[in-house]
Design brief:
Oligomer: heterodimer
Largest sheet of chain A: 4 strands, mixed
Strand content of chain B: 5-15%
Number of domains of chain B: 2
Largest sheet of chain B: 4 strands, mixed
Number of strands of chain A: 6
Structural class of chain A: alpha+beta
Order of helices and strands of chain B: HEHEHEEHHHHHHHHH
Number of helices of chain B: 12
Distance between the termini of chain A: 73 Å
Largest interface: A-B, 30 and 32 residues
Number of helices of chain A: 11
Shape of chain B: globular
Strand order of the largest sheet of chain A: 2-1-3-4
Strand order of the largest sheet of chain B: 2-1-3-4
Helix content of chain B: 55-70%
Radius of gyration of chain B: 19 Å
Helix content of chain A: 55-70%
Order of helices and strands of chain A: EHEEEHHHHHHHHHHEE
Amino acid sequence: MAAPCELFCWKAGLGLPSVDTDSLIVLAYARFAGAPLKIHKISNPWRSPTGSLPALRTGEEGSCSQPSQIIIQLRKQKYNADYDLSAKEGADTLAFISLLEERLLPALIYALWIDSKNYVDVTRRWHAENISFPLNFFLPSRMQNKQLERLRLIRGNASLESGEEAEKELYRDALECLNLLSQRLGSNKFFFGDSPSSLDAYVFGHLAPLIKIQLPNCRLQHHLKHLDNLNTFCSTILSLYFPSEGPEGVGRPVSQAQQGSDSDNEPYKRRKQLLSVLVAVAAMLSYALFTGIVAIEHVREEEPGGHASLQGPVHEEEEE
Amino acid sequence: MSLAAEAFVSQIAAAEPWPESATLYQPLKEDQILLSDSASSLAVQTFLRMCGLPIQVTCRPNAEYMSPSGKVPFIHVGNQVVSELGPIVQFAKAKGNSLSDGLDDVQRAEMKAYMELVNNMLLTAELYIQWCDDSTASEISRPRYSSPYAWPLNHVLSYQKQWEVRKKMNAIGWAGKNLEQVYEDVSQCCQALSQRLGTQPYFFNKQPTELDALVFGHLFTILTTQLASDDLAEKVKAFSNLLSFCHRIEQTYFKEHDRESSGSSRHSKGSLP
């Protein structure tokens, strides 16, 4: 048992233990392996030690950010969920992870970040509500740009915005991948028998957002609803390994998506009120200053004020 | 390949038989082609040989720009043009030539997964070594890639290509890796393939599939291509069953074919399910 590790990942929301695929993978793996991590669920990627989420900070080896790197780090500390796998199953794990990354991930990115209706109604909305104040204005769109760029480079063509055609192609690949996964899983509880492994963590990380987040516009979700074993697989993992986030998570996204923002959570409301009052006061004061209703004067002993001498303690006076 | 074109292709393709004049286009074999393109091209040729479909290989310096998807190789069959292994496999299937019909659902899922593994790790590693390792890029990749072009254009094109590949590596998180880590990934991938193959003649026992064609294409090219260092080939050579696998396919589909071309192609077609 080395020094305690700290895991930074995206906070829970939209009915998931974390909203981000990579964070979900790492969280699930840590639970599967029983690693005692100190988990920080945050909504500001700039507060992570590597500048992106998820990130693992270990005592002696610094920090790392990619899920595969994090899993290797955890393995080094003897938290290994793949201990029981045969060499061939290890090979299968690698192969199916590639399948997920090549086929399903692009469609997932597309559904969450590029499809404009989903992005505006769900993704940007959630991020704007949960990222702290000044960042929430530009971080979501920066993240979107990054994802768009990534998708474009993965697919290797520049014509992504053209919509329809690209979407169909992505979704066709993803549908095939979902079918293959469903066939591979069959009636098993997990991919390799009765205990979960790193492959299960990866599949969970990619599927759970598609199953749990209610997207207004996604053909992939309709298709996924028919693949019962994959649905059961995700809900088993949620109920066994994330019991605390489970029950209330299912109901929340629906209510959030359908009702307006009036049912927002309390702490933000108070802060927003305070902020708007401050902004209003600042606006009124500056208006008053500029139009000359209020003037700032320096009240020194004999010097007449009026000049814009900006040093010294500022004193306000009203003159009619 | 776009969807509309694909629907069209699968409709038309079924009707027409495979013509004798089918042609595969790739960059110049001696002076221009790079490891990754050469591997992809060999994979397609192997696949078509396994199906018993005759193909002529034609080298063109501008093959990359002729291809509908911008990637080589592509085949020209009748009046259709199809690029890359995945679509070509579908195209051949539409014409009634499939290698994976005998597999059950789970096996087919596994086959697809391993094909993605090869694309995801081996192909990416090849691209990384070609364009992101500075000595390989300056000694081999850039001069070869731009060999058909005259002075200012050759530099422009090769640096443009290099920039493109590096950006892609950035996007998939490989930019932070060093050469050692990439070799380790290749090793890991070969380890997985070797485990999967075991002592069987092909990945799914007796009959070859498109996975065998893809793996052969990449491994054989890695083994036979001279790079700045031999490290990459050494990684593959550590797995004896993969070596004999390459040897076996080379013997079956390339040596024999050249000796009695028409006879063995009919034979291999006959042995399919």
